[in-house]
Design brief:
homodimer; 224 residues; alpha+beta; four-stranded antiparallel beta sheet; 8 helices; 22% strand; elongated
């Protein structure tokens, strides 16, 4: 019985699940689909409402695309994460285009946008949950765009890591984020978040011992 | 009686005003202040929660600042508009810095962030209103950033307007937005929104008859 499965999944993920009526729960489950996306598959291209996507395994990448076909990663979604930006019919206010690809083979539950919108219309808790999810993601995205496109923090951090690696003749940089921030004249929080972004891109590995450079070529490209 | 004044103002602006209790309405009014900001005054610099700002007259400009002190306008607020991004204590998820200046002499009502947060905590309608306001602004901002920083649409449109103005030997370009979009290989909606952004910056004036270039120097700077 698929309903039972969806119900179990949603109970774990949605803080509002117990607060809505049996009928609304059933309606959401009836309008859900189990999807398996193969690595590399484009799931959403901004042209239509793809619904609310819940990641059960694997990972999805959200990105923007320039007219020349370059893309910039906005964020990644992993097990238990929810993609609201693909549901433009739920968040009417979203007016920019975002693309979603499966970065690994991924299992997802997809809730039809119209069904989700209808149920959230009569349940303020769902509406708040959806909006809070979106605001939180937006805020992350704004931060990344500000740092990358406006402050060139990605470039500056890449230059620092390459210079330091050359200086100490090692790919492992045993400095704290606070120390790096001090050298760069930036804030620890900025360095930590940018390193996390680099780690997500597979450029570095961050551990307690320091930063390990995994992909020097991509780091060099960032300095151009 | 200031309470009466705030109550009158808020009744006009807030769709939730009639749905909350007398006590909550009173609490918001008691934690409101009438402020007059002189042209050029910095109202919010991202360092602390400045509360929810409602514009009664004049205009405010929200912008981001680079480390070199360059700024980029995110959007403007006019009479009846509400600034939620200044209330970081209401929207916990907001983690990037935004600045707010008075662009003209402006009268505002400012609701203390803590008071607004407390009342919205017990009124889902307020929470939804605040979040929807934020999502809608975020979405506009993402669009602007995508166009300006990623697609260079500002540059491309500036080049087109200057070229066309030189060709026809006039500062008034009598083309529709759709025609310009066609020439530029872009979409009408993109051109319209970017022209609106230019108009907000005082670079052009948009009317039914076409586009009038007001500030050729700033247009030229955009093409660099």
């Amino acid at each position: 019985m698929p309903e039972t499965t969806f119900d179990t999944v949603y109970r774990e993920i949605f803080p509002f699940w117990d607060k809505i009526s049996d009928k609304d729960r059933e309606y959401i489950c009836q309008n859900s689909a189990d999807m398996v996306y193969q690595k590399g598959k484009n799931i959403h291209d901004g042209s239509e409402c793809s619904g609310v996507i819940l990641v059960r395994s694997g990972s999805l990448r959200l990105y923007m695309m320039s007219e020349e076909g370059k893309d910039i990663t906005l964020y990644r979604l992993h097990r238990g994460d929810l993609c609201m930006l693909s549901a433009s019919c739920v968040l009417n206010a979203v007016t920019f285009d975002v693309f979603v690809d499966a970065e690994e083979d991924s299992e997802c539950c997809v809730i039809g946008g119209a069904a989700f919108a209808a149920v959230s219309e009569r349940n303020p808790d769902i509406r708040i949950f959806a909006l809070e999810t979106a605001v939180s993601r937006f805020s992350d995205v704004m931060w990344v765009m500000q740092q990358i496109l406006f402050m060139s923090m990605d470039k500056r951090l890449a230059i620092f890591l390459l210079d330091e690696s050359a200086r100490i003749e090692s790919d492992i940089i045993a400095l704290t984020h606070g120390q790096i921030a001090k050298y760069m004249g930036s804030a620890r929080e900025v360095v930590s978040r940018m390193l996390k972004y680099f780690a997500g891109e597979g450029i570095v590995e961050v551990s307690r011992g320091g930063i390990k450079i995994l992909d020097k070529n991509r780091l060099r490209k960032l300095t151009l």
